[in-house]
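@channel sequence for tomorrow's demo:
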Amino acid sequence: MTQKFVMYSPLYRLEQEFNREGLKLSRQTMANWMLNTSDTWLRPIYDVLHRNLCKEPVLHGDETTLQVLKESGKAAASKSYMWLYRTSGCAESPIVLYEYQPSRKAVHAEEFLKGFSGWLHADGYQGYHKLPENIRVVGCWAH
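structure tokens (generated this afternoon):
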């Protein structure tokens, strides 16, 4: 995982490197190991950070397009979205979390922010204005 995410080596290159060393290790196997490791070891940490993030009085939210080449039920050129949520600059412990979603529907922000009550800095996307009343959406100066 360090080679892939820190050293930016794609799995096909790691597969080739292992093959040169005489170790037959497919990129599919390595991908499955990463998914399993993420679910087993990183998901609990993400969940704790998510709970702590939602306890903050001020958050920032945004979403950006993302292309996923092989996503079930979608063409390769379809847009998917990476949603970002972070604590404000005043937070004692800064937290930044990303959440992948296949669409830009407002329900994704509503589901992620369950338990949050406070101010949400966001751009002009109307989906944020469909959030429950306990979430006050305020515009950011950049938008």
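heads up for whoever presents: The helical segments are 2-5, 11-20, 27-53, 106-112.
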